[in-house]
Amino acid sequence: MPRVRNDGFEIAYDVAGPPGAPVVAFCEGLGYGRWMWRFQRERLDGYRTIAFDNRGTGESEAPEEPDAYSIAAFASDLEAVLDAEGVESVHVVGASMGGMTAQRYVHEYDRAESLSLLCTSPGGEVAVPTPEATQERMFDVPEDADEREAIRFKMEPAMSESFWAANQDVIADIVDWRLDSDASEFARNQQAAAVAAFDATPWLADVDVPVLVLHGTGDRVLPVANAERLHERLPDSRLELYEDGAHLFFVEDPEAVTADVREHVAAVEGDDGTTEAPDADA
Predict the structure, then answer these.
(1) Do 268 and 210 contact (CB within 8 A), yes or no?
(2) Are 115 and 38 in contact (CB under 8 A)?
(3) Strands 48-52 and 23-27, how do they pair?
(4) Are strands 112-118 and 237-242 parallel, antiparallel or unpaired?
(5) Cα-based torsion angle of the residue sequence 170, 218, 24, 190 in order, rounded to the nearest 10 degrees
(6) Three-state SS string across 199-212, please?
(7) Are strands 90-95 and 48-52 parallel, antiparallel or unpaired?
(8) Other C-beta atoms within 10 Å of 278: how many?
(9) Nearest 5°: CA angle at 26, between 46 and 229?
(10) How far apart (Å, rounded) are the C-alpha atoms in residues 85 and 204?
(11) Distance from C-alpha of 71 to C-alpha of 122, rounded to nearest angstrom
(12) Is the pTM of this model over 0.90?
């Protein structure tokens, strides 16, 4: 597992896909490890994909200082990973907190060729906050819940009722992955504080790369109005809504979401969306 040091902390990441192919980097949500993007990465054949564990999560180091956690810090971790891999240009995909990281990244650094923002928010006064009932569900776990029960309890609002009822095998796998990689309670709380402090509205109009904004209309974590407010403020954006889609709509409908991301990246790359792996000897 490759690692890079940034701000004195080790950040773990992995790389998949053919060398020389266009690079797509993924930024995950609050508390989640890089497993979150496995559904997209396994379908993005022909691209080189990179995912990293946010500081405090998975195999990355967990700082003990609260001020080490911020959206700007997560964006700098992504820059350190891309620099370590010698990536000159990248398509950045972020969901939820990772969407905030992606926004900050394109504002601070110059490698990004495109953004795909899923179930995220611009932050600040224009943002529509997480409903109080959802916040309570995500952070006030019953005291008698064991680890698996706690994860299931926190995760349920992020999924649609129909998917939850019909896909308990997938839910069980996700719980296993989360048991292996979730942020600690301290790190999760600091990541939540970073989300609360985020505000991209002063500079969103300066974002000069094409942006795909994807959001589920049934999102109970970050209401869909946040996507509309992002779309209104980004000068070159396209908004695609998933009818009744939950917060983790990209987990529930990976084929369609990956196809949307692929089409967006391919348009920027100037191909037809059927990118093939380059000859390894080329």
Answers:
(1) yes
(2) no
(3) parallel
(4) unpaired
(5) -90
(6) ECCCCHHHCCCCEE
(7) unpaired
(8) 14
(9) 120
(10) 28
(11) 12
(12) yes
- Taking residue 37's Cβ as centre, other Cβ atoms within 10 Å add up to 26
Amino acid of residue 74: F
Residues contacting residue 110 through CB under 8 Å, at least 6 positions apart? none
The reported pLDDT for the residue numbered 137 is: 81
**Quick one: pLDDT at residue 107?**
98
* CA separation, residue 101 to residues 53, 175, 179, 271 (Å): 12, 24, 24, 27
Written as six digits, the tokens of 255 are 């084929």
Residues 6+ apart with CB under 8 A from 117: 94, 95, 99, 102, 103, 211, 212, 213, 214, 227, 230
Residue type, 107: H
Rounded Cα distance, 180 and 79, in Å: 25
Residue 272's pLDDT is what? 56
How is residue 234 written in tokens?
A: 């980004």
What is the C-alpha separation between 20 and 70, in angstroms, rounded? 32
Question: What letter does residue 146 receive in the DSSP assignment?
Answer: -
- Mean pLDDT by runs of 10 across the 282 residues of the chain is 96 97 98 97 97 98 97 98 98 98 98 98 96 84 90 94 97 97 95 97 97 98 98 98 98 98 97 47 34
CA distance from start to end of the chain:
26
CB-based contact 79:13 (threshold 8 Å):
no
- The alpha-carbon radius of gyration of the chain (Å, integer) is 18
Q: How far is CA 205 from CA 49, 122, 202, in A?
A: 28, 11, 8
